[in-house]
Please model this.
Amino acid sequence: MSFASDLRLTNADMEAMPDDGNRYEVIDGEMYVSPPPSFHHQTILVNVAFAFGSYLRHHPIGRITPGVGVIFDDYNGVTPDLVFATHEKMHRSMVGGRFRSAPEIVIEILSPGSTNERRDRHVKHNLYAARGVGEYWLIDPENRSVEIHRRDEAGNLLFHKTLQHSDEITSAFLPGFRVPAEAFFA
Model:
């Protein structure tokens, strides 16, 4: 047994990491590092934020925010690509500019590589499922698809459907929100 295998990192450790453009996250005490996102990744992020922004201008129920910290406890802190939270949720869970409980919708844009995909599809999904995220959207740039996971009546965060092309993205958290999946990839 090595010392390193027993070491659990904390959010305080992540805060001490250098400001080098990488994204540092801690999940169950394990550090995950992501390099700066690509132009294509950020273009999708802007498109998603624009779709939400257009909706929220007419339905001012909350905010969509990129790269905000979500700190669940000392050993679990992540920085999703985008987070949607209602004003009520923000009022109840924002401390020091970071969420201290699950927002309604978390959106991750998959980065290339099996390690990144495993982290987003499994490790983060399990974290979000355990911590009460209402919906988890995985945007896949390569397949130009949006995978939606929704919390069921029993409280489980389950796969709902994959949307492509003209399939409309909707959400119970966003009454009247209807956006074709292809709008995120324009």
About this structure: The chain has one domain: 39-185. Residues 39-185 form a domain with the tt1808, chain A fold (CATH 3.90.1570.10). The helical segments are 3-6, 11-15, 39-58, 87-93, 114-131. The first helix runs from residue 3 to 6.
